[in-house]
Amino acid sequence: MREAPSPTRVPEWVAADRANQPVVHCENLSRTYGSGSRSVVAVHDVSATIELGARVALTGPSGSGKTTLLHLFAGLDSATGGTIHWPALGGHPLAEPGRVGMVFQGPSLLPALSVAENVALPLQLAGASTKTSLPAAMESLRLLGISGLATSLPEQISGGQAQRVAIARALVSQPRLMLADEPTGQLDHATAALVLDVLLQACDALGAALVISTHDPVISARLEQRWTMSDGVLLGNSGTFGGAQ
Ligand SMILES: Nc1ncnc2c1ncn2[C@@H]1O[C@H](COP(=O)(O)OP(=O)(O)OP(=O)(O)O)[C@@H](O)[C@H]1O
């Protein structure tokens, strides 16, 4: 029988931090790969603000720039044009490690580490001890309904389970900006709905912004804002995408 996800506890610092602060703000953001005649403009002239509490679905055809934009929002990639900053994160994600949670497209677990160790990793990289990071990892696995996988190695679990572990890892440090690149692409409809429930519930409790890239209309219909990318351009009026708090 499927293990039911448990309700998220609201951390104490959240209540004081619920204002509609911009978590990421960019102006005329661009990312071009390569140079000269072989260059590819993956993101072109994107201006937008995402506030704490926002719920955004990022849609668009394959190759339209969704992954590139998410990586720019995460601070994992550098823009080749325009500006980006993270007002609610001390200016840049690295100023407060762990305040951005990222679920990558495709497998991203370290094969030599157990599921629980993979989930604890972001906390340990930010300086937490095993004594505090492993219980937090277990709590995060419990939220996703997969605490029974804690001691498994990535090679022993299914692709869908691995995706849920990746989501548990992204939630473990209680991010204020949660970015998920097609997090439900490998999941059946029931599991996809459950995973989205957990993401929404966790981001509600954390007061975090959530941006999900998805090709699934059922997923995007459940988010308040829908952005569409086409050839690197964010269609419609760029602007503020905030949470209703
Ligand atoms: N590292 C890279 N080097 C060169 N070109 C790249 C690189 N990463 C992405 N691109 C190109 O940038 C464009 C946007 O790619 P991106 O992965 O952001 O699109 P996407 O909308 O996320 O696609 P998908 O839905 O298939 O994941 C594509 O033309 C892609 O080939």
Radius of gyration: 17 Å
Q: If helices are DSSP runs of H or I spanning 4 or more residues, what is the number of helices? A: 7
Report the top-level CATH class of the largest domain.
Answer: Alpha Beta
How many beta strands in the DSSP annotation?
Answer: 10
Give a list of the ligands: adenosine-5'-triphosphate
Q: Can you give the helix content as a percent range? A: 25-40%
CATH architecture of the largest domain: 3-Layer(aba) Sandwich
How much is the average pLDDT?
Answer: 87
CATH topology of the largest domain: Rossmann fold
The SSE order reads: HEEEHEEHHHEHEHEEE
**Largest sheet strand order:** 5-6-7-3-8-9
Give the full name of the CATH homologous superfamily of the largest domain: P-loop containing nucleotide triphosphate hydrolases
Please give the domain count.
2
Q: In terms of structural class, how would the helical and strand content be classed?
A: alpha/beta
Gap from first CA to last CA: 36 Å
Task: Tell me what portion of residues adopts beta-strand conformation.
Answer: 15-25%
**Which descriptor suits the 3D outline?**
globular
* Uncertain parts: 4-16
Largest sheet: 6 strands, mixed
Domain ABC transporter: 24-245
Organism: Jatrophihabitans telluris
GO molecular function, one term: ATP binding
Keywords: ATP-binding, Nucleotide-binding, Transport
